[in-house]
Structure formats: structure tokens, C-alpha cells
Design goal:
Shape: globular
Largest sheet: 9 strands, mixed
Mean pLDDT: 88
Helix content: 40-55%
Distance between the termini: 29 Å
Structural class: alpha+beta
Order of helices and strands: HEEEEEHEHEHHHEEEEHHH
CATH architecture of one domain: 2-Layer Sandwich
CATH topology of one domain: archaeoglobus fulgidus dsm 4304 fold
Low-confidence stretches: none
Oligomer: single chain
Number of strands: 11
Length: 370
């Protein structure tokens, strides 16, 4: 017990020291921001680290949000899942919400899926994420085509996530085929965005990204090297972007815009796209008592102008002091989410029609008598 207490005390001390280092870096960024103009490069697209943002005047503007829901379960001989996605479209006039539309419906029916392929647990997890993202991206494309919003927000990234390690799966495998279907869906979405003039952005609620810290580290070398202490470099190496920027950004401020990857041609996922250089990122603090949001942006041109427009809209759409997500995505999330009871209804419907077959038996881990 004494060893346990000692370990936790040491851990608390390490965490506290590292957090204090992050606070110092955040304060340093605030202090140098007004005194220094950055040199523009392929990595640095603006001349300030921190940029103030004003709320948008939401007049005659249409903003859409896309989110999806997924529930899944593995049985003895097959896997089952339910998936759905919804587009929520808010129309604003004179800074007020004037109308709301939904695509394909206000509460879409979930799409049932059965998977007979002999995936292991990890492959099933990846395949499920592919199906969910495919549904969301297809819904996003169709929402743009039918409603032509000025901005469309995805809940999460604007490129495929959680599947990068499977780009090298043998081309004959079903998992690889599904992955390619997803890549094709994203390509179609990007083309639709360019044709319809909709701005595509993604908002990540809980980002684990470190790209800003990576860019900041190189920026310190070129601009502030004499003033950088070893503890500052340690803080950058051991920090997530949103953790560090919690101390650097105040409400209504964003970071500069920077590329998603330092080498898009070799990035595991971006290399699949011709528009790989057009995927950009920034962080924005939309609530006093919440952490900054990670915002991804597809910008074929006018990247900074689009970042300013999207930032202003997000600031206007976030109405809670301790939760910074935009209202249009909150609405989409509430309508897209699925529950275990939805999957149980699907499962028992199969049982009733097919009989109590071996393939439909529960896994032993869910049937333990103790």
C-alpha cells in the first residue's frame, strides 16, 4: 500500500510540473504574439500565432451538420450492426434560426447490416468504422447536393480516421475493398464541395492531435531559439495540441492555419487524394470554460478567408460557456445516436425468422455463469 501511495504521489508531481510547463508556454505565446510577425512558409500560413475572431452575423446563411450513429455486436458465427447518419440544416435570418431541415429524415431509420466474413476483433472494429464513415460521407454529399449550405460541418475529421494501418492490406481482401469504397466517397464529397461552393469543415470534440506542437517546435527554432528553455521543448514534445492551447487561447481566439501533414504525399491517408494539400487545420476557443476545438478545413483556395468565416460561424453557433461544440452538430448527434436496445430488436427479429441457429449464439464471454 505504501508503494502505491508513493507511486501516485510521484505521478501527481510529474503531472503538475508538466502542466505548469504548458502554462508557461501558453503565456509565452500570448506575450510574443503582439510583438512578432511570423515568416510565411508552407507550414505557417499566417503571420500571427493567435488570431482574434468576431462572432458572425448570421443573416441569410445556411449551415449544415452531419453526424452518424453505430451499434454493433459479435455473435458466434456472424457480426451484426446498425448504422445511420443525418444531415441537419439550420437556416438563419437576422441572427436568428428561421427554419430547420433534415436529410434524409428528422429521425432516419437505421440501416441493418450483417457481416459473415471471418474478421478478427480488430478487423471487425475497423470495418464497422468504415461503414459508419461511409454512411456519414454519403449523407454529407447528398445534403450538399440537395440543400447547398454555405458551410457543412462534419462531426470529426474531414479525412478517413481509425483505418490508416489497413491501407496496406492485400488488395483482394474485403476490408481493403471497403476501404477503397470509403476513399472514393471522400473524393466524391470533395468534388461536390468544389462544384457547389460549400465550405467543408470538420470539428473534433476530443482531439489527440500533436501537429500544432510539431509546427510550433520548428517555429521556435526559426523565430525564438535564444529564448526557448529545455523545459519548453519538453512541454511541446509531451503535449497534445488542445492541452497546450488551453493556456494560449482565450475565448474568441484561434491559432494560425497550418497543413494537416508536413508531407501529404507520404501521409498514410492523405496520399490517396489529389487534393491532399488542401486539408488544413486550426484550433478555436468557442467557450470560456472549455478547451479549444480542433477544426479541419478543405480549402481549394482562400484558406485564411475561409478559416475566418468558419471561425466566426462556430463562435456564433456555440452557446454554452462550458461546452464549445456548435449547436448544429449537437442536434445532429442527438438524432443520429443509436442504443443497444435498437440492436437487440434487430437481433431478435433475425432469431424469430431464422431460428435459434449456432451462428446466432452469444459469445461465451457474454454467457459466463459467474
Amino acid at each position: 500500500m505504501k508503494d502505491f501511495i508513493q507511486i501516485t504521489e510521484n505521478l501527481a508531481k510529474i503531472v503538475g510540473e508538466l502542466e505548469n510547463q504548458r502554462k508557461q508556454v501558453g503565456q509565452f505565446l500570448k506575450e510574443v504574439n503582439s510583438l512578432t510577425n511570423l515568416t510565411l512558409t508552407n507550414e505557417i500560413l499566417e503571420d500571427k500565432i493567435i488570431i482574434p475572431v468576431q462572432k458572425a452575423n448570421l443573416n441569410n446563411i445556411k449551415i449544415a451538420g452531419i453526424d452518424g450513429g453505430l451499434v454493433k455486436k459479435s455473435f458466434h458465427g456472424l457480426d451484426v450492426m446498425l448504422v445511420r447518419a443525418i444531415g441537419v440544416i439550420f437556416q438563419y435570418e437576422n441572427n436568428k434560426l428561421s427554419s430547420t431541415n433534415y436529410y434524409p429524415d428528422s429521425i432516419p431509420s437505421p440501416e441493418p447490416k450483417t457481416v459473415f466474413d471471418p474478421f478478427n476483433d480488430l478487423e471487425f472494429e475497423i470495418n464497422s468504422n468504415i461503414d459508419r464513415q461511409l454512411k456519414e460521407i454519403t449523407t454529407a454529399k447528398e445534403t450538399i447536393e440537395l440543400h447547398e449550405p454555405d458551410i457543412l460541418f462534419l462531426d470529426g475529421s474531414i479525412i478517413p480516421q481509425y483505418i490508416g494501418q489497413y491501407t496496406f492490406v492485400p488488395r483482394g481482401s474485403l476490408l481493403y475493398a471497403n476501404y477503397q469504397r470509403l476513399i472514393d466517397a471522400y473524393k466524391q464529397l470533395f468534388e461536390t464541395v468544389k462544384k457547389k461552393k460549400t465550405i467543408l469543415a470538420g470539428v473534433t470534440e476530443d482531439s489527440r492531435g500533436t501537429r500544432f506542437c510539431e509546427v510550433l517546435n520548428s517555429l521556435f527554432i526559426t523565430h525564438f531559439n535564444p529564448h526557448i528553455t529545455p523545459s519548453t521543448r519538453i512541454a511541446l514534445l509531451k503535449s497534445k495540441d488542445s492541452n497546450l492551447l488551453t493556456y494560449a487561447l482565450s475565448y474568441g481566439e484561434r491559432s494560425f492555419v497550418f497543413p494537416y501533414s508536413s508531407n501529404p504525399k507520404k501521409h498514410t491517408v492523405l496520399k490517396e487524394f489529389q487534393d491532399r494539400d488542401k486539408v488544413l487545420v486550426f484550433y478555436l476557443k468557442t467557450a470560456d470554460l472549455d478547451r479549444p476545438l480542433r477544426v479541419e478545413l478543405f480549402a481549394d483556395k482562400g484558406a485564411v478567408d475561409k478559416a475566418n468565416f468558419v471561425s466566426s460561424a462556430l463562435l456564433s453557433l456555440a452557446g454554452h460557456s462550458s461546452y464549445g461544440m456548435p449547436s448544429v452538430l449537437i442536434e445532429a448527434d442527438q438524432r443520429a445516436k443509436l442504443q443497444e436496445k435498437d440492436l437487440e430488436m434487430f437481433y431478435y427479429d433475425i432469431i424469430n425468422k431464422a431460428g435459434n441457429l449456432a451462428s446466432l449464439m452469444e459469445q461465451r464471454r457474454n454467457q459466463r455463469p459467474f
